[in-house]
Structure prediction request, 266 residues.
Amino acid sequence: MLLNNVFLKSIRDQRRSLLWWSLGISLYCSSITLLYNMMKDSLEEVVMAYPNDLAKVFGMEDISEMATPAGWLNGEMYSMVLPICFIIFAVFCGANSIALEEEKRTIEILLSEPISRTKLFFEKYFSFLFNVFFIALVIWLSVSICSSLIDMNLAVSRIFAATLHLTLISGSFGVLSFTIAACTGRRSKSIIIPVILALISYITNIANNFVDGLAPINKLSIFQYYDTAGAFNYGVNLATTLSFSIMIICLTIFGYVKFTKRDLQI
Prediction:
């Protein structure tokens, strides 16, 4: 019975949403990657028409990097559009985990089964992670397959590195949403708080490239440590990966402790 397996029930409940998100992101990643093959002959002339300061928005030193395969993927997808889409997806998945069950009063049905709060928490958590990693896999495969079809000469491992960094920052905001949902049972808070923090963090990090004196404040911006340009060039940054992983683990532990102790909305 699915009620005894919260993990499978959660995946089943979210399968349509996951399918449509996967389809949309796959089409976007594939089309942008294949577009490079159509524009590569004239791309260098096109990007040189842009002001060089625009490179700072994409985490580059020089706008001419946009004419390279790695620069194209980073500038067109990994620096802005994919983080926005992936963070929104992860935040809504996190918010819809426990908080939606409480708002719909279905958590009472789940807990009427022989399911402990610990089992409920972690099966919801792992179903959330399943959705996040599934989208990450879709992105990696879409970009890798299409880049190989047009001979972009970009190692699959470098695409994996950039996608891993994307997954870590998006997953961090998603875990924050999940934690808020576990602590409060409020879906609105679980969505609004992570989205506002992500927006402030992103804007602060971009502004730091143009405004003097923001460096101390920007140290608190999570986007400061999101370096997909470096991932495309050098591979996985172990220090960044470890830092994000520790933050995710700490948020998860905090959410678990609060969830097991608070009064649920039943």
